[in-house]
Amino acid sequence: MPEPTAPRRPGESALGQLGFGAPAPEPADASPHSFPDGGTWRTEVPSVEGPEALAVVLKETSRLDVPVHRISQGSGIWMLTDAEITEMVEACAERDIELCLFTGPRGTWDIGAATRTDSGGAGLRARGHDSVAGCVEDALRATELGVKCLLVADEGVLWLLHQLREQGVLPADTTFKVSALVGPVNPASFSVWEQLGADSINIPSDLTFQHLTEIRRASRTPMDLYVEAPDDLGGYVRMYDAAELIRRGAPLYLKFGLSKAPGIYPYGAHMRDTVLATARERVRRGRLVLDLLARHGADGGMSPLGSRLPGQLKRFAIPT
What we know:
Elements (H helix, E strand, L loop, with lengths): L11 H6 L23 E5 L5 H14 L5 E3 L9 H14 L2 E5 L25 H17 L4 E4 L2 H13 L7 E4 L8 H10 L3 E3 L6 H8 L6 E6 L13 H8 L2 E5 L15 H24 L25
Parallel strand pairs: 1-2, 1-8, 2-3, 3-4, 4-5, 5-6, 6-7, 7-8
Helix pairs in contact: 2-9, 4-5, 6-7, 7-8
C-alpha cells in the first residue's frame, strides 16, 4: 500500500517555482493526540437558538452535504421551554448529532455594572449564589429532558457540575464544554479547566499555531475553535488555516461561526429572520471549509459521525 501523501499547502507549486516556497512543517509541532475513535477533528454549528433554527440547519446540512458532530446554542437553557428542548433533543437524536445547550444566568445579563465597562468586569461568570444555583437548575432540567452536553462559562459552576456527574446526580455520559468567551489562552489555564471537569474547551480564535502546540504539550482535552469567529470574538476568518489548526490542535472541533452578523443572545421571535438567515449561512461557511480541506488533501481524519465522547482526561481529586 502506498504511503499517504502529505496535504498540499495553499499555492505551494506556483510559489515554489518562483522561489517563495514555505519551509516544510516541523513534525514536532504536530499534536500527538486524537479522539478515542481515532479521528483528529469534528465539526460544530454554533448559535442554533431553537427548534426552528435547528430545522434550518439540518435542512442545509443535508442540502450541502455538511457532516455535523455537534450543534450548540448560546442563549441558554432557561430561554427554552421544555417542549422546545425536547423537540431539539429528538431532532438531533434522529441524526446522531450531539446537542449542547448553555447553562443558566451569566454576568453580562445581570444587574452588575462592571460587565458594561470597557474592561468587561467579570464577564460571563455566574454572579453570586443565585446565579450558580440557576446554572445547576438548568443542568438538572436539561439532562432530565435528554440533553447530554452542557455549555459552561464559569469555573465554579463547572467544578460543581463535574462533582454532580461523579456522584451520579447528572448522567455519567454528560459532557461539559467551556464557552469561547472565557476560553483559556495558555497551557496552564487550559489544564486547570480540564481538571475542573471540562470535556472540550473553546480557545480564542486569535491564538497562534505555536500557542496550540504549547497547549497540546500540556493537555489532550479536545479544543473547540471558531474557524470564523463572531464579531464579539474578533471576527477572524481562518479558513485557510484549517489544515494546520487540525495538525497542531487535534483533537479539535472546527466551529463554523459567522462574522459581520448581529448579536442574537438572548434569542426571541423578534429576531427570527436574522437567526434563521445566519443559521443557514453558518452551514454554507462549513461547506466552504470542508471544500478547502478537500482541495488540499487535508480532509482525512474526521471522526465518524455520531462520535461525541472525549476519552480519558485528567481531573482534580474531589474532596470527601
